[in-house]
Amino acid sequence: MNYDEIMKLALERGFYFPSCEIYPDMPAGFWEYGPNGVSLKNKYVELWRRELVRRDGMLEIDGSQIMSKSVFEASGHLASFADPIVKCTKCNSIYRADKLIAEVSNVIVPESADLEEFDKVIAERKILCQKCKGALGKAYKFNMMFGVGIGPEATPAYLRPETCQSIFVDFPRVFKVMRGKLPVGIAQIGKSFRNEISPRQSLIRMREFYQAEIEVFCNPAKLNEISNFGEVENVELNIMLDGEFQPKRISCKAAVESGAVPNKLVAYYLGLLVDFYSKTGIDVKKSRFRKLGAKEKAFYASVAFDFEVETSLGWLELVACNYRSDYDLSSHAKLSKANFEVMDNDQKVLPHIFELSMGIDRSIYTMLDHNIIDDKPNERVYLSLKPYLAPVQLGILPLMKKDGLQEKAESIFAPLRTKYDVFFDSAGAIGRRYRRLDEIGAPLAITVDYQTLKDETVTLRKRDKMDQERIKISEIEAHLSKELQYP
RNA sequence: GCGAGCGUAGUCUAGCCUGGUAGGACGUGGCCUUCCCAAGGCUACAACCCGGGUUCAAAUCCCGGCGCUCGCACCA
Question: ipTM for the complex?
Answer without folding.
Answer: 0.92
